[in-house]
TrEMBL record:
CDD domains, A to Z: ABC_NikE_OppD_transporters (cd03257)
Family: Belongs to the ABC transporter superfamily.
Protein's UniProt name: Peptide/nickel transport system ATP-binding protein
InterPro entries, A to Z: AAA+_ATPase (IPR003593), ABC_transp_ATP-bind (IPR050319), ABC_transporter-like_ATP-bd (IPR003439), ABC_transporter-like_CS (IPR017871), Oligopep_ABC_C (IPR013563), P-loop_NTPase (IPR027417)
Length: 310
């Protein structure tokens, strides 16, 4: 997979992630609005089978009791929700901080055990358990975390970081690892020489490219981003958003993007689920939910959250 095949139209040698604000925009004549528009907003028909599905999924936390006479406080981080993600779609899960978005993602990927409900991936039950039991799911999924500074081990070279899924899943030989690492680094706009360097040598946007390379190196079908853009400068954020759209198209990825920034989501997703207080209060095609919101919370969110173009 050459850089041209993986990411059409991108100059992989000059991602300009070290620049911020107007300087980066002036460098290539672009503003902060991504080039890539969201793909079609078709309504899913009953004949389609979800790639990822949740039914009655919930998570309750009980804090330790304060004394012998008072039980621990119960927190419903996620109330029972139903959710379907269809192959080829980009689903945005939006809501303010503390709404349950990250809890939902952890349950969908079996990074935590639900209090109730079920999750299936391509018709197969997803159940938390030992790493060996979940290897099949890890092979099918990749995740990008919020903080590009905390999610990369500073003691490891970029090459080792990106190759982690290949090593952990037993994919390919060591020589194949090196070739594959170079391929995905170039696909996300970094040169091959980046493999021998360390995370502290890169800007925040470049680190998130490294995290993205690690998330796709093993060829997953589903890519999940848990607030992957919120820690970045607005212009760098737009570039990473462009890159996600390009990789979705070139690799045939299904995306689930968690965010509280509606301005980001409207450029990438074709479906939206709106969360507040641990519940999904509205979901549907992006154009409908953002253009004609039905729930009062969605309307408040649309009027209050800053957008990428602000």
């Amino acid at each position: 997979m050459s850089r041209d095949e993986a990411v059409p139209g991108r100059d992989a040698r000059n991602p300009d992630d070290g620049l911020t604000g107007d300087d980066a925009a002036a460098r290539d004549g672009r503003g902060s609005t991504p080039r890539a528009a969201a793909h079609g907003d078709e309504t899913n028909t009953p004949t389609r089978t979800p790639l990822l599905s949740a039914r009655g999924l919930s998570r309750r936390f009980v804090s330790p009791r304060e004394n012998l006479f008072q039980p621990g406080r119960v927190t419903d981080a996620l109330k029972p929700v139903d959710l379907d993600v269809y192959e080829g779609d980009t689903l945005a899960v939006i809501g303010e901080s503390g709404s349950g978005k990250s809890t939902l993602v952890r349950l969908l990927l079996a990074l935590d055990a639900p209090s109730s409900g079920t999750v299936t991936f391509d018709g197969r039950a997803v159940e938390p358990g030992p790493a060996a039991k979940l290897r099949w799911l890890r092979r099918e999924t990749g995740i990008i975390f919020q903080d590009p500074y905390a999610s990369l081990d500073p003691r490891m070279s970029v090459g080792r970081i990106v190759a982690e899924p290949l090593t952990g899943l037993g994919i390919h030989s060591e020589g194949d690892h090196r070739r594959r690492v170079v391929e995905v680094l170039e696909a996300v706009g970094l040169d091959a020489e980046a493999a021998s360097r360390y995370p502290h040598e890169f800007s925040g946007g470049q680190r998130q490219r490294i995290a993205l390379a690690r998330a796709i190196v093993h060829g997953p079908r589903l890519l999940v981003g848990d607030e992957p853009l919120s820690a970045l400068d607005v212009t760098v954020r737009a570039r990473i958003l462009d890159l996600l759209a390009e990789l979705r198209a070139s690799l045939g990825l299904t995306l689930v993007i968690v965010s509280h920034d509606i301005g980001v989501i409207q450029h990438l997703s074709n479906r939206v689920a709106v969360m507040t207080e641990g519940e999904i209060v509205e979901q549907g095609p992006t154009t409908r939910v953002l253009g004609r919101p039905e729930h009062p919370y969605t309307r408040r969110l649309l009027s209050a959250v800053p957008t990428l173009d602000a």
